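Quick note —
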Amino acid sequence: MRCSQLLIACLALLASPAICADVELPAGWRLPLKRDIADDLHIRKSSLTNYLRAVADFNGDGIDDTAYLLKPTKYGGEGLWVRLSDGQDFRWVKLAEHRWERKYSPIGLAMGIEVVSAGVYSYACFDDTKEECNFGPTSERQKLKLADPSLTYFKLESAASMFFWSRRYNKFLRVWLSD
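Predicted structure written out below.
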């Protein structure tokens, strides 16, 4: 995306200008436009970034990374991307993608993102495991101790998961917080 396209996209956003970044986005992806972030429940208005952008040092290298909810340019859907530092440069990492049937392509963003501080969190299960998720009381759930800030990824007024950087596996892992 060229600077002029980025400026137009930023001006079109309903969110704070802080959502706009002077970075080249992943090929085939764009920032959400005003029409993409309509909110009948007015939940997005409770956040300065409308839950579209989150900044923290997710991988513990001392440099802030930035997560974005982006829209694909060639089909209906949305994706969660992180511009991740490796200490010297940045690369794009796609954490999640939702593709919608053609008849639903004009639908706006359904998900939100927010930074979660380092700490201990109860979770239901890891993504892509064969274990059954325990969505019972949080006191009965497994605990996860996080050394770095992480990212909650949630459907507004619905399910939530968390992406965190695993130093052991050198990649993001996902746990489910609610169904």
